[in-house]
Amino acid sequence: MDVRFEHVSLTYNRGNEVLHDIDFKLPDGELIALLGPSGGGKSTILNLISGLLQATSGKIYFGEDEVTKKTALQRGVGMVFQNYALYPHMSVIDNIAFPMKMAKVDKKQRLTKARELATLVRVDDQLDKFPSGLSGGQQQRVAIARALAKNPSVLLLDEPLSNLDARLRVEMREEIRRIQQETGVTTVFVTHDQSEAMHVADHIMLLNDGFIQQISTPQSLYETPANRFVSRFIGDPVINEISVNELENVFVFPDTATSIGIRAEALVAANGQQPQIKVMVKEAQLFGREYQVRLLLNGHELIATNDVQLNPGQVGMVSLDMSGVHIFNEQGKRLNKEVQTL
Ligand SMILES: Nc1ncnc2c1ncn2[C@@H]1O[C@H](COP(=O)(O)OP(=O)(O)OP(=O)(O)O)[C@@H](O)[C@H]1O
Ligand SMILES: [Mg+2]
């Protein structure tokens, strides 16, 4: 089911508007990540899709069907939250079957379906346990199976992995991807972790302060950020940023350009074809297999993840791979114009 917002805004109890004129279409069958810093409006959008919140203005569609005024029950979404909220006094199989019990599906049928879902999420060897006897990851698997039990129109996941440790988060995000692909259900996944969003999503909606910053595939968000906020939020290490003044002796920038973002991997060993920039190497460190060099350009620190073939303490030249270089105007909008070399 595709999900569409038309000029949706939301104000909580006569207070400030927290979502401003939100317009998007989430394609059917995709996994879409809602990404952004705390307070950006991710959960609010999720609750507007679910019907737990009503839009202050604008329209919401599921496919051709306008659902703006419909209740959560009528919309038939499945939801999973950060705190698993399983029923503690029910076994795994009963937890998964519960929504079907409420919908008065007959017992034999719902147990068959619950077992299928348990197999899908790989808790089929835990059916008689109670939630307190499960690990965090297993509890989230059960919560996902329960959310899928009523064949939801859309599956909504609000930071489902944030209570898990780092390694389990990685494992579970792959699991969510697999389950989403096996079921084909349109899924909206909220996270504030850019790497998580980059790894699982078909499309990412990046939000800040109740505005959509960009909706794009993970790769194009990284390669062609719409603005400075997007370029900073996506990518690790964080993009290097300096004033265009620092490189005026090497490049010609469009008149309105004020700052330049340089990805860590775009700082490369000096080569004959590219303009060269004078830097001092502050230090070089190896983290596992990742190499990081701290460079100083007129006293501004830049992080490079390539071997720039200079030793710490040495002054020398580096070049830029222009595909990882973005220029921005004063308002932070990315300028697409080519930077020219002097
Ligand atoms: N029930 C509420 N009443 C009033 N304001 C609220 C309410 N819930 C959220 N807000 C405000 O709406 C804005 C968006 O909140 P929202 O919960 O959607 O952010 P979020 O992106 O999910 O953040 P987080 O990553 O912290 O979960 C915030 O400024 C928040 O203070
Ligand atoms: Mg939230």
Automatic annotation (TrEMBL):
A GO MF term: ATP hydrolysis activity
Keyword field contains Transmembrane: no
InterPro entries from the UniProt entry: AAA+_ATPase, ABC_transporter-like_ATP-bd, ABC_transporter-like_CS, ABC_transpr_FbpC, ABC_transpr_MalK/UgpC-like, Mo/tungstate-bd_C_term_dom, P-loop_NTPase
GO cellular component, one term: ATP-binding cassette (ABC) transporter complex, substrate-binding subunit-containing
Keywords, in A-Z order: ATP-binding, Cell membrane, Membrane, Nucleotide-binding, Sugar transport, Transport
Pfam families referenced in this protein's UniProt entry, alphabetically: ABC_tran (PF00005)
Signal peptide boundaries: none
Keyword Cell membrane included in the entry's annotation: yes
Domain ABC transporter: 3-234
SMART domains assigned: AAA (SM00382)
Top-level taxon: Bacteria
Protein name: Multiple sugar transport system ATP-binding protein
Source organism of this protein record: Weissella bombi
Lineage summary: Bacteria, Bacillati, Bacillota, Bacilli, Lactobacillales
